[in-house]
Please model this.
Amino acid sequence: MPSRRHALSVLALLLALAGISFIVALAAGSIAVTFDDLLAALFGATFDHMGGNTLAVEVIRGLRLPRALGAFAVGGLLALAGALMQVLLRNPLADPYVLGISGGAAVGALLAMLSGLALFFVNLAAFAGAFAAMLTVFGLAHGDSSWTRTRLLLTGVIVAAGCGAVVALILSIAPEAQLRGMLFWLMGDAGQVSEPRPALLVLAAGLLIALPFARELNLLARGELLAQTLGVPVAGVRRGVYFLAALLTATAVTTAGSIGFIGLVVPHLTRLGLMKLGWGNDQRLLLPAAALAGGSLLVLADTLARTVAAPQQLPVGVLTALIGVPVFLFLLGREKSA
Model:
């Protein structure tokens, strides 16, 4: 087993990647930004004497920085939720959207948009819809107390299908003027993030809650019988993992809409990378590493989405799908041949 120093080196490398992704996100755009502008924007009056461009500084502070922080938080939330879901279902290709959380949030958000409500109420309705879907799936899957991974997965698929039908109905009756905003939300749009702090706080809280249970998660990933034999309260841990993963997913979807494949691809690729380094499926390193990698990837994808076809801005969910589909197919083929 590699030493703790090696683990810290991995996390330091991912932190450096996160820093690079933020620099790229803050510097890229139609308005040129210098290094002095970045320092003035990030550190305020400390570097004001360097003569940064006032317009560039305001663009960074008011537009690019909140968007980059929001994208990082959403990417981290989805990757962390995906890692937890893959432990919960003991499936390395599990996805945080598999339990219908995204569908419930979409129904809530689109109903609020159809009613002409403000952005705050759209976000509130999205979170309420995600929470309602979470309770529905867990309640139906629990049934007569015979809660199983298969039952949970099948219930989530059915709830997601039902939510998809409701979404299609809403889109079919929505006025044409509202369709573009609805479609952007459904495809994921980090441009709507104006206040990233709640998502960042949920991400930090999720890591602080999950990491103390890394040993139990490691044992649960190896099998429920082994975990029970070694004293893990399997039923309680499964419920906790489910509710935490659902909360992380609901927060991500509420913040930036439905962004696919981050929660599927990033944890799996992170796990493969750690296995190459000899760490295997150790949640002590996998959970923070996946959160950092997911946040960095979404920041870079969002920067590409707003610059590749400028002045038009693409939904970031489109780019993550274009990246995620071939990677998923590669991973699926790798699983079959293993």
Confidence is low (pLDDT under 50) at residues 45-51. The first helix runs from residue 4 to 27. Residues 51 and 261 are 42 Å apart (CA to CA).
